[in-house]
Amino acid sequence: MSRANYKLVEDEREIKDAEYLILLILGKAGGRISILHLQKIFFTLWKFHPQVRRLVDFVPHLRGPYSSDLDDLIKNPTYVVDCWEYIPPKRGSEAERVKGGYLEITEKGEEIYRKIVDGLNEKAKEDEDALALISAVDLIVSLYTRLEWDELLLLLYTDENIKEYSEKSELSREIIKNSEKIVDRLIKKGIIPEEKRGSLMKRIKSARWIV
């Protein structure tokens, strides 16, 4: 196989893997997820899992870390076709605008999602990377989908380890301004324990890259 053909095959494989991961996240989320949440879940996986990092690129954006590659795959899938439907955001709602619309799984998508899960679970018996990916998806999806859009962005914006992805955000200052109310909600939900309030508020006030 020539180098050009090998590169083409690799590119096709990465596109297919990225689309399967979108469907895996969507299925784990219960079949419906906002584009904002999907982007941030994918980013967190991308940041910490080598297999995901080769699939797409992320850059700083108006709403924090963002991948145009991922956005294109979400709205124009090549291989995982008719497995989800994109629902545009409702007009007149700031929250809906920020969320960027939703993905909803289709009947075909549910069938393929179950096959993906079965395949990964079988592979994970002998492959540590597959096991790590399944565990990471389970953990991150279950946490992030419990968060409202501003709760999710507050935790991402104030994470010093990824601060370079928050510097261009159009929402960061407004979210920091409302941080006490957001933290109250996080504690009420049980996402953050009451005894961690002080350290979280300190982290927020130390996020000088936003100010």
Task: Please characterize this protein's 3D structure.
The protein is mostly helical. It folds into two domains: 1-127, Arc Repressor Mutant, subunit A (Orthogonal Bundle); 146-211, no CATH class. The protein has eleven helices and three strands; from the N terminus they run H-E-H-H-H-E-H-E-H-H-H-H-H-H. The protein has helices at residues 3-28, 35-48, 50-53, 68-75, 94-99, 107-123, 128-144, 149-157, 172-177, 179-189, 197-205; strands at 32-34, 84-87, 102-105. The protein has a three-stranded antiparallel beta sheet. Helix 1 packs across helix 6 (107-123), helix 2 (35-48) packs antiparallel against helix 7 and helix 10 runs antiparallel to helix 11. The longest helix is centred in the first third of the chain and has 26 residues, at 3-28. It is globular and about 45 Å long.
Structure, briefly:
The protein is mainly α and 211 residues long. It has helices spanning 3-28, 35-48, 50-53, 68-75, 94-99, 107-123, 128-144, 149-157, 172-177, 179-189, 197-205, and strands at residues 32-34, 84-87, 102-105. The protein starts with a helix and ends in a 6-residue tail after the last helix.
